[in-house]
Amino acid sequence: MNYPKEKYFGELEQVHAFYDEMPTGVSISETGRIFINFPEWGDNVKATVVEIVDDKLVPYPSQEANIFDPKNPESGFLSVQSIVADGEGTLWVLDTAAPNFDVPVKGGAKLVAVDLSTNQIRKIYTFSTDVVLESTYLNDVRIDLRRGSEGVAYITDSSITGPGALIVVDLGTGDAFRILDGTHSTAVDPEFVPKVEGEILMNREADGSTSAWQVAADGIAISHDGDTLFFSPLSSRHLYSLETDLIFNKDIDDNELESHVKDWGEKGASDGMITAEDGTLYAGDYENNSIRVINPDGSMETLTHDPRILWPDTLSIGPDQYLYFNANQLQRQAGFHKGEDQREKPYSLFRIFIGKNPAKVK
To answer: Does domain 13-353 have CATH number 2.120.10.30?
Structure first.
């Protein structure tokens, strides 16, 4: 007998299958190059940043750049959580320097600019201890080249033990500062109970002990005109935004910023987000195997709902007008299942046609 089944929709195409370490980030350059990163979360990571070339994973920008030297922590990547090609010739690499969400290695947390025309590291930005705290986990980054002498970077601190925050970096001077530090909009929603694949997602140790899995500010996106910054804690279904001019307004004290944050309501629980050229915002929905759409007028809909979308992580829009994202089965890691790794290879890089170009940053 045929029974009614859940409705799935959206035409997904698998771009690459990963049979080894687990990917988080993906970014597509303006020329269609595909970059992937693998954080140090317990897998055997051979290179934390790679480029997919002829269906092979090639360390990027070199194997040497993927070798971390504790004596010179600025020089090599340790555990990269996010990569972003800005559409203007640069790949931005965000190194947490915090394998397994541990305390960041001193001097190792950094934002690195790689010139895509030469495949050489152009500049390295490091952080003071009042910006990257012992509890900080640098998660995602967005670039706006329209502000300041060389642009700004916005980074989420998705701490699991301390305050969430947004980190702002002046790409001209290298100066960085925290905003919305520990405020409601960057913090874990205390009422949020994540449910993935039919069960509550929580830390489940091998000895049977359990604890809530709580992650602060994570997904981030910039409006197509650079005027609005969107962000969302991982442990929340709410979308928040802040006008970027307010961040740089000397007359507004940082303590006042939270009063200017807008709550757009529930969009679903998201890891990554990305903006298209017309201002449409795309966000993963890891509880519902879906990709969500937030239209410029605030209305929301679902782009695709598919059982293969097992934890949609980072999103990227390519010059081919496809939306790319990794499905990495984060919820099946051993820490959530009493020490049993339930992930099934392969992990997938998917794409779906949206007919829109990525938002410009300049």
So the answer is: yes
